[in-house]
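Usage

Read records sequentially. Each one opens with the input sequence:
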Amino acid sequence: MNALASLPMRTGSILLSELIDLYMAHYAGRDTTRVQRLTWWRGQLGEMAIEAISDDNIHAAIESLARQPSRFFAGHDADGKAIYKAKHKPRAPATLNRYCAAVAAVFTWAIKRRIAPKGWVHPCRGIEHGAENNERTRFLSDDERQRLLAACKASKWRRLYLLVLLALTTGARRGELCGLRWRDVDFEHAVIHVGRSKNGDPKALPLVPAVVEQLRAFEGAPGGLVFPSARQPDQAYHFGARWAEALRAAKIRGFVFHDLRHSCASFLAQNGATLLEIGDLLGHRQVSMTKRYSHLAASHRSALVNRVLGEMR
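and closes with the structure output:
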């Protein structure tokens, strides 16, 4: 029997908490933050029927979240439970937007599956997204790259070098790499399959020989994670402390893990890759996302124009 056939139909009385449970039971995405964000929404509006939830309720919840300090993962306690500590700064607009997008995905799913009442108004449609600063393009210089890779090789966590080299050469996101399993690694064709990108598109990333060599050294069972926790092998290793140590050893400041993705794009741009090629590798659906690297490709564009049009009189 089709699992979707058993879903409730056209009922506005379903509680948000019940709808979230149904949604997650059918969720096939790879967003590792989805559970955490929807758990937060369950605590905010979980006992409300969806027909009673308005954009005012969503707005009030997001405003409440905005007043709370952001948090960061600080390891596990003696029982293996995650520990989060507060940062001394408010949550970024991008974070608030992601929380809103998580519950919006649940509502959209309910409409598509005919769970929500006919003509029901999506309560997130009236929410204005905060302006995000996506122009940050910190990337490594050649010297910084060499120092960082050397520091990663010397790390107490033996797989840090592999992780950073993967990020630098594929442009993969942190979540994609942390969720990578050995069955996703195709040694024969030298690619990794990371399911679908954040945009929902199928994604396969090429591997350079040095990465293949490193992967071979750690190869495990098909269902195992490539970067597993030693205590809980089915959970990704929390490498924040080791990453911070490597940055300090390499004397690199103002650099976060996501900047490895920017570094990958910048290296490609400076060595002749087109914006279309860079966007395809990074999984950008809109060319505007890739234009931040356009100034790095200036010499390539100049060579192209002169090669094709240089003799024009």
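Summary fields computed downstream for this record:
- Strands lie at 69-76, 82-90, 185-186, 191-196, 202-206.
- Residues 7 and 115 are 7 Å apart (CA to CA).
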